[in-house]
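Structure ticket #2291
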Amino acid sequence: MSELSDASALCTQCGLCCDGGIFDYGPLAPEEVEPAREAGMAVVEADGKAGFLFPCPQLDCGVCQIYAIRPQTCHGYRCETLKALDRGEIELAEGLARVKEGRDAFEQVEAHLPDGKTVMDARRWRREAGKSDATAELNASPMLMMALGMLDVVVDQHFRRPDQRQVMPVE
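Resolution: structure written out below.
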């Protein structure tokens, strides 16, 4: 398999960068705001900067439906597993094993979510714990919080850069 098809195989099996498994927000350049809105992305603006919230509604079965016109942040993003594959540090089989571990952890979070809630809702609850009624939502499901913690451990280990880590900071 060529490097391009290996990368494509890895990414289309994963989707954690688009479904909220790795991040909850993607920055947008000013000229990307309107096209993102038109694409159905949840655009938010804070402190004069625009971005969109994950999960991205344009992800369908692991494939970006607006790939040719996706935002620059999406175009330029490469997770640590994809970079390791590109550098020849891991084979595709290892990359796919990491993806499976990440997808399994993501699905465990989803299994413990209240109806109609997303992984991003759980991340926001955790971030706002003690500041609002979010604490009650979080405390209602210790299994959800454990699953969310495991997802972050797996994502920190295999997908986020060291400076992006949530629970495994670089010392």
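Closing remark: Helices lie at 3-14, 33-38, 72-76, 80-86, 92-111, 119-127, 134-139, 142-158.
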